[in-house]
Design goal:
The chain is of the alpha/beta class. It has two domains: 4-129, Rossmann fold (3-Layer(aba) Sandwich); 155-343, Methylesterase CheB, C-terminal domain (Rossmann fold). Helices cover 35% and strands 20% of the residues. The N and C termini lie far apart (41 Å).
């Protein structure tokens, strides 16, 4: 397999050097050029035809979002955003992921070295090179079902990684105010999840928050695991969020496997959903949920940005049925409905 050819775009010479050095440590990656701004990058894209671009969020002449919009409209290709670890940087990065960027990493900050910040950059770039690039622009909001009533004791658990911002925005924007009690683990830098929860809250009729210790898991509420901080679990006769410090599981903290396994131990109706993402986190946990009586769904290959996690889950028998992203929200709500008739619709 030939090396993944990367163009690094950042206005800071120091940052271009750090990103280039991080990528060159991987023998399967070739940095074919660097650009200081979008105008220079545009010419280099035409001349070098890279497989992937790493793109700074804030640059002169044209900011990263404007340039990303032009890339996705005129020459769609995989883009990995490189963002400052600030609230403003997180919000802009989330916009970029919504517009079609494949993934994002944070820049080195206070107490974070370049080696630590860019530890996963090579893997993200190689994953981006194999991903499906969405070209449709911003995600359109879906009108929630007005007549829906969630089963009061049902718990819904969702896991996602690369491409999950698009998938979760698409699914949760269709959730009504009386949605199932929902817990979500999405792999993303810790500084991004609070902003992502706030973004989801604006697009969904339900209440979306970053999970906190002891929060009751109840209908009408969606709880997002805090990125990089702790594993999100659900436990108790009256289910509550539990945040557990501990080692990474399946290479991640928070881990989808940890969330799914905790839900599998609940003595109540449950549904598990595994979405786009690289690796295998969540597959084994979803199998435990299905073996415990849960209904389980997986995102299909054609609509996944990266068909990794849902593929492994499907291959080991954890996924009851695969569906395209456009049909998942309706199918999920049917399974978690107070009406038994709805739950039979996708059987």
């Amino acid at each position: 397999m030939s090396a993944v050819r990367v163009l690094v775009v950042d206005d800071s010479p120091t940052m271009r050097g750090l990103i280039t050095a991080a990528l060159r440590r991987d023998p399967e990656i070739e940095v074919v050029g660097t650009a200081a701004d979008p105008l220079e990058a545009r010419a280099m894209i035409k001349a070098l035809n890279p497989d992937v671009i790493t793109l700074d969020v804030e640059m002169p002449n044209m900011n990263g979002l404007e340039f990303l919009e032009k890339i996705m409209r005129l020459r769609p290709m995989p883009v990995v955003m490189v963002s400052t670890l600030t609230q403003a940087g997180a919000e802009i990065t989330l916009e970029a992921l919504e517009m079609g960027a494949v993934d994002a990493v944070g820049k080195p900050g206070a107490g974070v070295t370049a080696v630590e910040a860019f530890a996963e950059l090579g893997l993200k770039v190689k994953t981006a090179a194999r991903s499906r690039v969405r070209t449709g622009g911003r995600i359109e909001a879906v009108r929630p079902r007005a007549d829906y009533r969630a089963a009061p004791d049902h718990v819904l658990a969702i896991g996602a990684s690369t491409g999950g911002v698009e998938a979760l925005l698409t699914i949760l924007s269709a959730f009504p105010a009386d949605c199932p009690a929902t817990v979500v683990t999405q792999h993303m830098p810790g500084t991004f999840t609070a902003s992502f929860a706030a973004r989801l809250d604006k697009t969904s009729a339900a209440t979306v928050t970053e999970a906190v210790e002891g929060a009751p898991v109840i209908p009408g509420h969606i709880y997002l695991a805090p990125g990089g901080v702790a594993h999100l679990e659900v436990s108790g006769t009256t289910p509550r969020c539990r945040l557990s410090q501990g080692d990474t599981v399946s290479g991640h903290r928070p881990s989808v496997d940890v969330l799914f396994r905790s839900v599998a131990r609940l003595r109540r109706p449950m549904t598990g959903v595994i979405l786009t993402g690289m690796g295998r986190d969540g597959a084994q946990g979803l199998l435990e949920m299905r073996n415990a009586g849960a209904r389980t769904l997986g995102q299909d290959e054609a609509s996944s940005v990266v068909y990794g996690m849902p593929r492994v889950a499907y291959e080991i028998g954890a996924v009851e049925r695969q569906l395209p992203l456009s049909r998942l929200s309706s199918a999920i709500l049917d399974l978690c409905s107070a009406s038994p008739r709805d739950a039979q619709m996708i059987a």
